[in-house]
Amino acid sequence: MSTTMSAGSTRSPRDEHHDPAPSDPAAPRGAAAPHPAAARSAGPRSAAPDPAEPDPAPSHPDLAGAVDQPLQVLAVDGTRRPEAQLDPCLRDVDEAQLAALFLDMSVIRALDDEAVALQRQGELGLWPPLRGQEAAQIGLARALPERDFFFTSYRENGVAWCRGVEPAEMLSVWRGTTLSGWDPFARRMATPQVIIGAQTHHAVGYAMAMAARGQEDIAIACFGDGAMSQGDVSEAMVFAASFRAPVLFFCQNNHYAISEPVALQSTVPLSHRPLGFGIPSLRVDGNDVLAVRAATRLAAERIRSGAGPMFLEAVTYRLGPHTTSDDPTRYRDETELERWRERDPILRLDRHLERLGAPVAQLRTEADERGREAADALRDAVAALPVPAPEALFEHVLTSEHPGLARQREQLTALEASLAPAGSAS
Amino acid sequence: MSDFLLPDLGEGLTEATIVAWHVAVGDEVTRNQALAEVETAKALVELPSPRAGRISALHAAEGETLGVGAPLVGFAEADAADAEADAGPGAAPAEAASPEPEQEQEQEQEQEAASAAGAGEARLERQQVLVGYGPVLPGTGRPRRRARTFPTTPYERPASATGDGPTPRAMPPVRRRARDLGIDLDAVHGSGPGGRILRADVEAHAHGGGTAGRRDTGARGSRHVPVTGLRKQTARAMTESAFTAPHASVHVTIDVTDTLELLDRDGRAEHRTSFLAAVCRAILPAAARTPAANARYDAETGRIEVFDEVRLGIAVATERGLLVATLPRAGGTPTAATPSGATAPGTAQGPALTAAIAETAARAREGALSPEELTGSTLTVTNVGVFGVHGGTPILNPGQSTILALGALRTQPWEHRGGIALRTVVTLTLSFDHRVLDGAEASAFLMDIAETLADPATLLVR
């Protein structure tokens, strides 16, 4: 997309920082000046109209331009472009780090593919694939220290993997053998929420507690574009802003709330909404792992400094179905999909590594091997998952024994005993 | 040989149709290699192979629909796992593959056809309810709910568990009812299946105070009263009315202080006009202005019968039960069945009408009404106010389109000439057959009556 410069677009973010009057938030989409980064952009830009990259308009005065224009440091063709806000957070990135990110993304894709296959083979009841969102999840999870606490939706299995969640822990909920796959405190990641947006409350509450205790940990609420239409998320942002809670709202805009396109849910970029709550916001290319990583660091530093909550919108795309029960061909077409395959986050880093002259072929082989190992471990874990006794239902309801529950457990046991003969007869 | 069974591909699916096979018998496949494309009620998906190995059987033909759990693909038991790394599709000799699957497919199709014919109804009964998609609707019509049965033996409460064993079995609403009534379920005998306590058991316990349900002891918890005579007739009439005529009601509360003063102005008992008589008097011109209020809906002919004449019926509570007594003709023509002197011409006048009502009611209590007097009314007034209540919503007397309920005359603070004064007010409720009248007509009729009662002088100017 070619861009033209306008008066506002040449100002640096630093200048805008001192500009007391932010531009008109009601400016029509695409009508205002492009982001400064676009004007400075060295590399060629994607020729196709890019839904992830239009809509230049207003911004938080503190965070120039990025509310609209997704910040990007890796172009689709893999070229590295300067980005004034993010570059300071990327100074430590060397080839080894890039390779690690490449491996991370490759491995979680392999894990994800294997889980989809396991569902198709009848081993899992359901699985929500993350294919296409690897950069958003890896960029996020790898930017934060272990002590920060994640409150996620059900699709953040890439985040879970970064947090050391074991294959068996990752699959047990989807196989229906447990209600919570892992110890949230051990992994610093709460049990993923299936209720859309509910985890944002948990994150804000946790963050408020951290602030009250004087701890520097921050909480991260991960949710999708669909959750932005939920009342819970709005309420959570109200509380976060009012109490200056150290929480990062991380929205993976994968363009669809199941079948509902994001444009139907929001007539403005999602990153505009937090501004109304008084929460600064950044829009970042969610298929650019470096941009996500840098933006997360920027946000986390800011939050940790006591500046209150912050919102990141990672503009990405779900290449697979919403879940294994979904048929995306019913609501989107192949041309759209093809456009986004071209923006594949792993492919982009691959191209970047290639441009840097890194040993890509070797990396690809290693990625395949590690991916296969992880997939094998996942498959082996499924077979080994114990089937819990029905009485296990009662185990994690209350911390102590309760007469009512004890009675119900006895009744269940008696019921099972009475069912046994009929069951064996049929 | 081991079979790969067709899995539930999406939260509650019961079947899938084979759209295309990507492998043939004899093929060596790797794990997760696509075996087939199948279509479910939700989506078209590729089925990845659960293992590496050699395909020994395809259990369905393309286009065939298989139930979840049915064998889909057979794998040869050879050391297949070792072949995973290098064996791809087409690695196996092609000639071994071709004849066998066709035979198998034919057999399978025959079997399928046979089983479909044999269990045809059972197959039609099957219904998929998809998470997020709702039930599959067979053509038109609404979703059907089918009782599901499982081969189970009922749970019996262990004999030993008497004292502090499990709580007696009862549905939550029944438990709630028992709690509200302050009844300990342990003391209630359950007459339901498997000794379950039913609501009736709780009610019986509450009324009888006994420890056993009525089924066992007959009448300890309650009393059975045979429904006969008038009670039976009332029950039938009310049921018929309530379930054939769509009822609706309108209410109005009016200040009748001035009217009552007017009625009491002449102190002589024989000239006194009762309020009920005044109401009856007010109905007559109102019914003339709203003819639909004095009519009936004839379902058999699909017509509304509008009566020429208003025959007022007065609901009378008697020892035997409720009666609707027809007043002497309002127009003043006595009928053969009403020998009373009160039926002289001019009965519509206040004092005479008062006397006629009193006399009719008295004869109703004595059981002395003629059949014509019991059935001849076209519009009923029920004076529930005599019981002290402010009003009520009456059920129509069958064959009539309106019924007016008269509440108690009560003195209460009321708006009067821009201030608040103690006034005597009364609530009038008109129930009407919505097949005959709409709210507008019913309201007009009621307000007509109300205005006359609030200000009798309107009779002169209308």
TrEMBL record, chain A:
Any one GO biological process: branched-chain amino acid catabolic process
Pfam families documented for this protein: E1_dh
Domain Dehydrogenase E1 component per the UniProt entry, residue ranges: 106-369
Required cofactor(s): thiamine diphosphate
Segments of skewed composition (Basic and acidic residues): 12-21
EC number: 1.2.4.4
Feature: compositional bias, Polar residues: 1-11
One Gene Ontology molecular-function label: branched-chain 2-oxo acid dehydrogenase activity
Keyword Oxidoreductase: yes
Reactions listed under catalytic activity: N(6)-[(R)-lipoyl]-L-lysyl-[protein] + 3-methyl-2-oxobutanoate + H(+) = N(6)-[(R)-S(8)-2-methylpropanoyldihydrolipoyl]-L-lysyl-[protein] + CO2
Region feature Disordered, mapped onto this chain: 1-65
InterPro entries per record: Alpha-ketoacid_DH_E1_comp (IPR050771), DH_E1 (IPR001017), THDP-binding (IPR029061)
Keyword Oxidoreductase: yes
Keywords per UniProt: Oxidoreductase, Pyruvate, Thiamine pyrophosphate
Family of the protein in this entry: Belongs to the BCKDHA family.
Function noted in UniProt: The branched-chain alpha-keto dehydrogenase complex catalyzes the overall conversion of alpha-keto acids to acyl-CoA and CO(2). It contains multiple copies of three enzymatic components: branched-chain alpha-keto acid decarboxylase (E1), lipoamide acyltransferase (E2) and lipoamide dehydrogenase (E3).
PANTHER family noted in UniProt: 2-OXOISOVALERATE DEHYDROGENASE SUBUNIT ALPHA, MITOCHONDRIAL
Protein name (record): 2-oxoisovalerate dehydrogenase subunit alpha
Organism from which the protein derives: Candidatus Brachybacterium intestinipullorum
